[in-house]
Structures are given as C-alpha cells and as structure tokens.
Design brief:
homotrimer, alpha+beta, Jelly Rolls, three-stranded antiparallel β-sheet
C-alpha cells in the first residue's frame, strides 16, 4: 500500500466553474498506484468542489443562475458579515451547500468518474483568487 | 491492508429515493475486511446519494416536496439546458445540492451508520434509469 | 500502513454550529500517523457536518438565518413528518443539504485545513442532544 499527496493551485478570474478534471486525472495516472482511493480537498470556505456534466456549458450557466437566485448577493438581502463586499457571505453559503471534498475510487490508474462527470472548482467570489486543492491518493500498484 | 471494489447497478422507476443500505452492508460483510473505510461513488450528475432516516416514509415524501419547491421543473422556471425535458436541468441542480460520494468508517465488518441512518440513491429524473454505484473498501482483516 | 478509530460525543444545547476542529486535530496528532487520510462521520440525520470560516461569528449567524429562511419550521410550511415537533422535518432537510461526512488528507500529523477552515457539527434540532461522530484515520508513521 502506497500514498501520494499533491498541492494544486487553481487561479480563478471571477465567480464560476473551473474544470480541474484533466489536471487531476493526469496526476493520478503519473503515480504508481493502479487501484485505490483519490481524495480532493478544497482549502477554502468561499470556493468549493462540484461534480457536474462536462458536456454542455448551458448546465453551468443554469447552475449559476440557480445559486444567484437562491443566495442573493448583499443589497438584495442584508448580511451581518460583509467585510469583503456583497459577495462575501453568499460565497460562504454557496460553499456550505456544495462540497469541500470528494473521494473517488481509482481503477486502472483512473478515478471511476461516469461518462459525463467532470470535477469543477466553484469560485463563489466575484474577484480573481488563487485557490488551493490538496490531492491524496492511497492504493496499490496492481 | 487490503482493498476491494464492486460495481452495483440500481434500476430506478421514477424520481425518488431508492434504499441501497442492505446491498451495501451485505457486500461489506462478505469481504475479508473488518476495520477500514468504505466509499460509495455515484457515477451520474442527475442522480445522487443521500443519508436519511429509514424509519418513516413521510420523511422521504416531505424531502421530495422540498426539492420540488426549491428546484422547480422547467415551465415554471426557464432553463437553457432542456434537451432531455423539463426535469433535465433540475436533476443536475438537485445532484449538486446533495452528495455524489460517501465514505463511512467500518468496524466489525460493518459501516458505522447510526441507528436511523439509511443510504439512498436519489433518482432526480422522472423516467426510469439504470444507475451505477462504485463501492471501494480499504482496510484490514482484524 | 496503520489505522485508528475513535468515537466522539458532542453535547449540543440548541440549534446551531459547534466547533469540533481542536478535538479532531488533537486526536489526529496523538496517533502515530503522519501522512494519511482522516474521515469524520456524523451518525445522525438531524445533525450534520460543515466546514466554515472560524474567524467571524457573524458568518455562523448569517448561515443560520439563511437555513431558517430556506427550510421554514413547521407551521409556516406543512410537513407530514412532525412526530417530534415543528423542527423535526426541517432538521432532516438541513442535514440533506449539508454534509454527513468529511475526508481530509493528513500531512505532518495534521489535516490540511485551510487557514480559515473550521470543522463544525451543525445541530438542526432546537432541543439539546448528544451527537456522536466517528473518526477514522489511515496512513503511515512517516
């Protein structure tokens, strides 16, 4: 049984979904672990992880529309916590409603994502950020 | 340290919760691993996983009522992505709000679910589907 | 490769967020495992886990306000399942929208939480409860 850990920086430009599937698959396939468990951890409370369809960009637009309606930015709703602007508290709420972590079984050196599944970092702040993911892999070479 | 992987197909008839607790517990108890970690991965973006009370069917009905109000089907709300019908995009949003993956510690060859906890596959589409879960178990025989 | 498991009881006084970060970090640092994966499992369907900012208490108040608006207690909305009172079914829905489980990579005997990340037990019932978490750690001493 072996382990590998990697820190990945994802630069974001604005609120929205950033696909990290290929970066993650590439790193997993470079390790000498064919069967195991991959864990992705997002080190933030105003950005999060999401597994979504990677075929249609419309899915991402509709998803963002939904979250904007569900968690209105400050001004439309009054938040106590608004130190960093009207998108500060909504970012924390959106992160609470999505995922900070994913663990995916690995077979043949590849996480068992379904045909349409992509892994996304969801930036919830409106300004650019440098986001950090930690990847952990445990398993065996065979 | 050992590992085991299994692919499980769950046929669904319509939108709703399908309990998979017993299938999962049975598979875990059949492996030669008493102490470890079980991971369940759902290979879809329009179906997901949910841990819920397995005593009262009313809980499942109320939960479905809640999600139907929170994420209205197309027609009531306009979605860009509606290739597969009015339940297509709502299914992706419901999946984003629930879980694609669960990891549960295993003691005495049994995932440590609480007394009232059941594991459900949540079908978010209105038509029947064949859904696939991947189970991964890592641990030791003692 | 080694494993360790621990059961932790968290007494709650009322609805709200209870920080468990330090308890969890202390237990991890006491194990002889420097590199690995920590999993936290919540054995309930009316309490859950949340990763949130641990700097500002306003974040927790705004978060609770949000969930109270999103999932109104019985009386404002009619639920079938109300055996244990108007906060019974809302507790199940809030748990469904947050996390029952977290898995965090461990480096240098410490889960790789970001600077502002704290781990909270979210009590969704209005009365006091004794909640149980199961901690599982797998990894190596080096």
């Amino acid at each position: 049984m072996k382990q590998a850990i990697n820190h990945v920086v994802v630069p974001t430009r604005a609120r929205g979904l950033y696909e990290v599937t290929h970066q993650i698959l590439d790193w997993v396939s470079d390790q000498d672990i064919r069967t195991g468990l991959l864990t992705v951890w997002c080190r933030h409370t105003s950005a999060s992880l999401l597994v979504q369809e990677n075929a249609s960009p419309d899915v991402r637009t509709d998803l963002e529309d939904f979250f904007r309606r569900l968690v209105p930015d400050g001004g439309q709703v009054r938040y106590r916590h608004d130190d960093e602007g009207p998108d500060d508290m909504p970012a924390h709420i959106r992160a609470a409603l999505t995922q900070t972590q994913l663990s995916i079984p690995v077979e043949n050196a590849r996480p068992v994502l379904g045909t349409w599944q992509g892994i996304y970092l969801y930036e919830h702040r409106t300004s650019p950020h440098r986001r950090e993911l930690v990847l952990h892999l445990i398993g065996t070479p065979a």
